[in-house]
């Protein structure tokens, strides 16, 4: 997530440098065309650029809105993960009949559940970004659990299965009643839903044809505009076309980045920051004294 | 679902080839009309194409947005199917009192439920696309169950009925308590909801009159524009009109394809891919060693 | 619901024939005005029609979107009715403790519930459309139940009350446990919600002032445009104004029809078709051999 | 809620009569300015009114959409109240173990609950509109309950508290089981949610600055347009400006009225009509013979 | 929340005073440029400002809509908090088996729960605004509870943990049954969800690049317009440019303020007012005689 601080100019330009280069070549080419063959070029009706312009803004507006919706939905999903992580631990604590525990203290059991939940958050975040989903998990789960994860392709799902097994064992010891057990299992369903939603956003490609059309239309628009501006021949036209085209490409690029919020980019949903917040919250609910610091912003963004 | 790779130019052109041909004929016809009868033609006020143009973009914008919503809703429905399939198996495992099972091992029962759930996903996907809904199901369900399906028109619904019967039998053996049973039945309600939502999207025709109007307006617009461009007579006008019309037809066609995401087309919701993911996830939850590979992309799309 | 087949031209024209006639009269009147009093008419600034045009598209766009939302919501409500009808029967079957039934077979009880549910769907559909809500219900419910309905103004609500009474009786016989009973009662709440939503859409008039303004603006626009086109006097202007006005009136009319999807019109939500689908599904869940055919399309629409 | 019948012209004009008067004064003033000082007035670039015009439509479109959403949400909330009122009574009837009642007949208890629910609806409607929230309640609740209400500022909330107490008493007599009691309490939560939503819509002022800007822009637009129309000096200009301005003010006013649907105005959500419908439905569910008539429309609207 | 009263002109101007100053400098600079170097300046094609203008309104419209959604969502979250606070207390009262209480009266227990809930609301509001989250809490919770809060970073979460512990203790005394306990715990989950949603809105920065682009485009637009208005040189141009630019900046600023509704600004969601309403409602539900007054508006806004 980009923060409210100054965004480096370099960062913005870097995103559209290839498009700008291509626009520059196109402008120069049509400039030369007009210079040498102006008498052969057809007159362009004035409505044409306007119509193309409105077609471009039509699809751009659509794309900006829908990509924002994806980005905001991704954020909502991770907001729900925060809430459900906290509620899972609170409910486990509230529903536990401590005197039914045989070999462990309540605190140990809750800590294992809470830590596994922290592990799940980090693991899901890493896995969505295509990074190593078991990195650093050894701090939060036992060696046997890590071994169990090895056999699974979907690590966060395997962690939910471990949660499920733990709840079942506690239910069989009578630590949770039937009704409380079902309620806690419902929290796992909610976590499973959030995981699936994030995976859906991550694996669903935004209809690519729209992107193709935007690029097509922008180039068409530039050509038509260049041919239409018969009176202004010369170097002045090139910066004008560049400025206009950059406008459209910047908007399109921003939309594209919002669309895919789990790509390990500065515009990502800040899953590491959120996971750390969850870690702090859960550790405090476990009455631990040592809690980590929130993740600090890296220059102009939070990951 | 189209993937992020290069989409063949042929694929795009193929979709609007008839429209382009028709536009070509219209342009040529009006060109000749202007050539031979220019003095009889009325002057077209300059506002007319602009007003028609804004009417077109009005309905196009509406259609693009609503078709995207249908497409995204279809994807959400299948995302919910992924989540509920996983949760069904996780909950069945978590709620099962193993020592109440008489003639079977817990593993056998869970495998039957999990495999039937995989069958349900494939069957629903096939059935939505109008393909054979029992293709390959013999890998996942028993011969008797296949026979039971034969008598039913709605195969996925029949599979849910089998799920329901199984849960009832297990409840009567005491494998699930009353409360756990109701909870699992709720998962079936959720699956039934998702199935009904996908069927709704599939069977509801987008208001056809809007589509009709778009085509009507585009042709009206072309005629008016052609008559309005008095000064540009000749071959130059034809590519201009073709380019403009293709723009609108391409947008309309893309919207039309997104609207109906279960038509066995490259732009479909990738139900086979998703069903395979579910198969992999469920088999891993069943601790099976052999899991199939994810479906690979076919050139530029995933089914 | 209009189907994908060719819509008769007559059907479309019929909807706006009065508007076209009125526009024709207005055009002719202003034509004559311009012919006889052209020197007395004020010059119309060119911005005026454009500003009125954008005001029209502003409200038209708003109306098209909101009416589509109503139409889609109505369809969703009936989709939910499909799902809940199936789930009600599936759950009743799954939760029933058959050996607690005294005088009836499980099959008889389920059939009565299933058939009453079918009756509820048909009755709700008829009642929303302002048709006879007890037409043909004698096939599905007993004579006493029909008599009970007579005393009620809201027939579908009375059918839900009968469902409720039946579930209560079964609960008292111990056929359903307390927990299962509550779960089934929740399905009735969902059906009651869907019924109320459909009634809400049906009884809520879309803000009529917007409709009034659209008509007002279209006529203002025509007058202003007619006065503004000083150079084109004569018969050519009339078809141009007619074409433009028809555009706007067609869009407005389509929106108006989508807005009210239970008016016994071809653009209705196809409640009869959906009710029939539910009948087929429920009868197959009851393992009946005889199921009716789906409702066939009437020329270009499904009811 | 305005009905589909003819809306009196007077009603519409009345809403914008002050704005029209102000616009008239502004037009006359600038007319005179142009008449006496035309040589001192600056030339206005033609882009200026267009840019202001698009800024106006930008905010108007936004306001129309958001105010419709508020209006529709208010209607949905009252739709939910209809559903939950019916469900509450249906469930109370279905869950009641009649033989546990000591001093009362089941019919008496259900009537008390049903009538109190009717009272709640009327009271909420009155309270939202700023009218007397206990008007006519003596028909539906006992004298003691009326006395209890006196001490409370939020009468509908107090009625819910009475509902809650009644359910608790019945639970303690064993008329409702633990599970059924919780289910009925959930219905109270839903009613409490609906009440809170209606209060939220009622107490949240739509961002006033947008309204301010619209008015500001319309006047700016009129001044600029008036100065820009150099060629048309005289009386013709005034009706043109008036027509244009009325357009915008009418749209803004309609939006403003939709925004606040509980202000005792003809455009209100028809809470009295809805409450009467609930009264009819509940009395019929109580098998009463005497039911009131639906509220009739007052000339052109329903309250 | 700004109220419906007159907003001071000063307040509005203050928000954009720096932008206006910058626009003034830019206008003067380009004025002088045109005065001294007019022959060297390139002719600006008339389409350019129009295209930039539509790009600006594209992003402005997007931003206004999305910021309104955030603001409305924040208000909905606090509406849900009102509902759930009331429901929590109503349910606690309804579910309590008073004779199981050993050392306290029911009234004392309910008062403690209700007051802690009031404390939670105030604390959450303060914490969202970055103010002291334990200010004045000593009126509502005991000294030990205040001490417990000290160790926690997230005070409202710690208050929920105290709620949870209280419910658990009461459950162990048998004051709540298993089922009722789970139901009350669900209310805590809902409160935890609302808290997380408000935190999400508060901590998620709206995509900053869009804001950057709007500013960029407005300045580009001003430069281009200034260069394009060749015929109007002189002091007249400056107020025109200022008026136009202020329009856009005011819209952008209003959107920015709506976006972040917990910043201790007049445009905030009025969390103090809402918390006070909750306090009044809960105290009346506890049958207290002394209830505080609603928060009064401060000149033109409510906090």
UniProtKB/TrEMBL annotation, chains A, B, C, D, E:
Keyword Cell membrane: yes
Swiss-Prot/TrEMBL keywords: Cell membrane, Ion transport, Membrane, Transmembrane, Transmembrane helix, Transport
PANTHER family cross-referenced by the UniProt entry: UPF0187 PROTEIN YNEE, VOLTAGE-DEPENDENT ANION CHANNEL-FORMING PROTEIN YNEE
Membrane topology annotation: Multi-pass membrane protein
Primary residence: membrane
Top-level taxon in the UniProt lineage: Bacteria
Transmembrane stretches, start-end: 20-38, 44-62, 208-227
InterPro entries found in the cross-reference section: YneE/VCCN1/2-like
Protein name in UniProt: Bestrophin
Stated family: Belongs to the anion channel-forming bestrophin (TC 1.A.46) family.
Locations listed in the record: Cell membrane
């Amino acid at each position: 997530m980009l923060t409210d601080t100054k965004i480096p100019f370099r960062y913005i330009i870097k995103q559209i440098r290839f498009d700008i280069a291509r626009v520059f070549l196109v402008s120069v080419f049509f400039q030369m065309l007009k210079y040498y063959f102006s008498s052969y070029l057809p007159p362009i009706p004035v409505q044409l650029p306007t119509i193309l312009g409105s077609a471009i803004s039509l699809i751009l507006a659509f794309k900006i809105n829908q990509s924002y919706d994806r980005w905001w939905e991704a954020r909502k999903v991770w907001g729900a993960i925060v809430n459900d992580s906290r509620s899972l631990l609170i409910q486990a604590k509230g529903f536990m009949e401590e005197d039914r525990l045989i070999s462990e203290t309540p605190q140990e059991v809750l800590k294992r559940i809470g830590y596994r939940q922290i592990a799940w958050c980090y693991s899901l975040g890493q896995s969505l970004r295509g990074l190593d989903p078991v990195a650093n998990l050894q701090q939060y789960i036992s060696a046997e659990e890590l071994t169990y994860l090895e056999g699974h392709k979907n690590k966060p799902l395997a962690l939910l299965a471990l949660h499920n097994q733990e709840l079942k064992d506690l239910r069989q010891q009578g630590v949770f009643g039937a009704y409380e057990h079902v309620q806690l299992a419902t929290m796992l369903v909610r976590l499973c839903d959030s995981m699936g939603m994030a995976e859906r956003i991550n694996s669903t490609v935004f209809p690519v044809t729209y992107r193709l059309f935007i690029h097509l239309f922008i180039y068409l628009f530039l050509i038509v505009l260049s041919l239409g501006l018969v009176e202004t021949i010369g170097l002045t036209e090139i910066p004008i076309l560049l400025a206009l085209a950059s406008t459209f490409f910047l908007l399109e690029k921003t939309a594209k980045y919002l669309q895919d919020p789990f790509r390990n980019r500065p515009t990502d949903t800040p899953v590491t920051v959120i996971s750390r917040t969850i870690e702090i919250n859960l550790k405090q609910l476990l009455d631990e004294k040592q809690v980590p610091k929130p993740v600090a912003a890296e220059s102009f963004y939070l990951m």
